[in-house]
Amino acid sequence: MGNRFICLAAVLSAVMTVHGLSRDPPKIQWRLSGGYARLFEDHHAAVGTGLRVALTPRVSLEAELRLMGQAFGDDNFLVTGNLIYDLRSSSGAVPYLIGSMGVIHSRRSSLFGHETWTRTDITASGGGGVRFYLGRRVFIGLEGRIGHDPLVYSAANVGFVLK
């Protein structure tokens, strides 16, 4: 549990340090996501949220929390720091690349709850997506990643520009 918070604190500290050197106020976005993850040998539903802070007009850091699970007591909690590079800076469709690294905590119970195991691992992934701005403050998007725990992740996002 402590590793997750250390990772999140490190990402947020880096964002605040870089923005302390900038003259412009940071652009901040908050998003909600829902999708699919393949983790170990199983398929999972995934829901998450992320808070993204722009370092430059095209480079951002994001702190992300994601829950992944399925029926029969299989739960996974993921905390990552994401580095995002927008391939184009515009107010319409914005394609981007994303790399992430963090910690995943998994808990699995047997069908009848007799056996339970937990483990915490490092997770890393990379991929891309596209955000479609519906106005100045609202966007929707699609994203896909491949990596290690989860092996495959795809999601639909809805987000809001906070600042």
What does this structure look like?
With 163 residues, the protein is mainly β. The protein has one domain (2-161): Porin. It is built from one helix and eight strands; from the N terminus they run αββββββββ. It has one helix spanning 2-20, and strands spanning 28-39, 42-54, 59-70, 74-86, 93-109, 116-133, 138-148, 152-161. The longest helix has 19 residues, at 2-20. It is elongated and about 55 Å long. 27% of the residues are buried.
Task: Give a quick summary of the entry.
The chain is mainly beta and 163 residues long. The protein has one helix at 2-20; strands spanning 28-39, 42-54, 59-70, 74-86, 93-109, 116-133, 138-148, 152-161. It has one domain: Beta Barrel (Porin).
Count of extended strands: 8
In DSSP terms, counting alpha (H) and pi (I) runs of 4 or more, how many helices?
1
Structural class comes to mainly beta
Main-sheet strand order equals 1-2-3-4-5-6-7-8
* Cα radius of gyration in angstroms: 16 Å
- Helix amount: 10-25%
Name given to the CATH architecture: Beta Barrel
Average pLDDT value? 83
At the fold tier of CATH, the topology name is: Porin
Termini separation = 31 Å
Query: What is the beta-strand fraction?
Result: over 45%
Instruction: Indicate the low-confidence ranges by residue numbers.
Output: 15-23
Instruction: State the name of the first-level CATH class.
Output: Mainly Beta
Largest sheet: 8 strands, antiparallel, barrel
Order of helices and strands: HEEEEEEEE
